[in-house]
Specification:
The structure holds two protein chains of two kinds.
Chain A (H helix, E strand, L loop, with lengths): L3 E7 L4 E3 L12 H12 L1 E7 H8 L5 H6 L1 H9 L1 E5 L11 E4 L2 H10 L4 E5 L3 H8 L5 E6 L2 E2 L4 E2 L5 E2 L1 E7 L5 E6 L1
Parallel strand pairs in A: 1-6, 1-7, 3-4, 3-6, 4-5
Antiparallel strand pairs in A: 2-9, 7-12, 11-12
Chain B lengths: L5 E3 L14 H11 L2 E7 H14 L3 H12 L2 E4 L11 E3 L4 H10 L4 E4 L3 H9 L5 E6 L2 E2 L4 E2 L8 E2 L1 E7 L5 E6 L1
Helix pairs in contact in B: 2-3
The chains are: A alpha/beta, B alpha/beta.
């Protein structure tokens, strides 16, 4: 059955970003682009909340980013995006559809044949999915940096099962857990 | 440590930790602690644990670790205690940076710290730690006792290796 996967970069002390939303500290090299490209090949849907969607619709389809980040831009633009929003219903960003009832939609989608669905974590949608127990796997990209303070990915106790550990040349470690 | 960076729950809870280490992980820990001749700890951990380790020698999966804790020479850092009755333990007479720097400059084996959170936080804050072997348990807590919260800026580390073990623990080995 299709899985819902939360994929997120976190600091060694568990933060997705600093308190003032800085994410520049995350080390990212060609190894990580290759990793992400390979990961996304196993997915056919990107799940987005409204805020993440609005940031991305102004970024990935632009000419500038298609040139600067060809591999990831291709994945982000060509993979189907499902946006959960009560206010947005249309966009110029290709391959995007909208829904507003999370549990109904996800239950329906999991019954259909298809690849996995990815939720790039950190925002409200990821928190909602985690609260409702809708996440099947976590792909935690642990950076070799401690921030001291920031916004955490996990807001409550979450028991996990270790599946895989992948150290990367950039110093990140991709740790895969199932729920 | 939990997946989200805590070494204990908000009230010091440790019930979430995996203790049934598989043989490969036990070997990793033995190899790591073989050259250790001094354990540093804060007063709170010392008070909470030195007697508990004595009791834990009768719990099969904790026995090896407990014996190592009891038998190794220990130095406790405390602002209030001057002496103690714990076996193989002395109280540091100098303040933290001075004492640890002096220890590192002496010939001898490796020095290890396991906690508590506040004590290790101070070691990190003063840049006194050369290597980290972080045992990530397969659970996120949401809240608890952190060790990197006294940092005044980001602390970048160099990854040496990362290994997943059958019992569910991931060991992350970093140098400064």
């Amino acid at each position: 059955m299709r899985k819902v996967i939360v994929s997120m970069v976190i600091s060694l002390d568990g933060y997705t970003e600093t308190v003032d939303k800085n994410m520049d500290w995350q080390p990212w090299g060609e190894d990580m682009t290759a990793y992400m490209d390979n990961f996304m090949a196993g997915t056919d849907t990107i799940l987005l909340g409204r805020k993440a969607f609005e940031l991305m619709e102004g970024y990935w389809p632009t000419e500038e980013i298609r040139i600067e980040e060809p591999v990831l831009a291709k994945r982000m633009n060509e993979t189907h995006k499902l946006v959960f929003s009560t206010t947005r219903t249309t966009t110029n960003w290709e391959n995007t559809s909208f829904a507003d009832r999370i549990e109904n939609e996800i239950t329906k989608l999991k019954q259909l044949p298809g690849k996995d669905m990815v939720l790039f974590g950190g925002g409200e949608l990821a928190a909602t999915f985690m609260e409702k127990g809708l996440v099947d796997e976590y792909h935690i990209i642990t950076s070799p940096i401690a921030l001291g303070s920031g916004n955490p990915l996990f807001k409550q106790r979450t028991n996990l099962k270790l599946k895989k550990v992948q150290p990367m040349p950039s110093g990140n470690v991709v740790i895969t857990y199932s729920s | 440590m939990s997946v989200d960076g805590f070494i204990a729950g908000p009230n010091g809870e440790m019930d979430w930790m995996v203790w049934n280490w598989d043989d490969t992980l036990k070997k990793y820990v033995n190899d790591l602690t073989e050259p250790v001749d001094t354990i540093l700890l804060g007063r709170k951990l010392a008070e909470g644990f030195i007697d508990a380790w004595q009791a834990n020698t009768s719990i099969p999966e904790m026995a090896d670790f407990a014996h190592k804790m009891i038998d190794s020479p220990k130095i406790v850092f405390s602002k209030t205690m001057k002496t103690c009755n714990w076996i193989n333990t002395e109280i540091a007479q100098r303040e933290l940076v001075e004492e640890v720097t002096a220890l590192k400059n002496k010939p001898g084996g490796d020095i290890i710290a396991y906690g508590g959170a506040s004590f290790v936080g101070s070691l990190i804050q003063h840049g006194l730690i050369d290597e980290f072997h972080i045992f990530i348990n397969p659970v996120a807590l949401g809240s608890g006792m952190p060790i990197f919260n006294k940092l005044e800026g980001f602390q970048k580390l160099n990854l040496v290796k990362a290994i997943g073990f059958d019992c569910g623990i991931t060991v992350l080995h970093y140098t400064k």
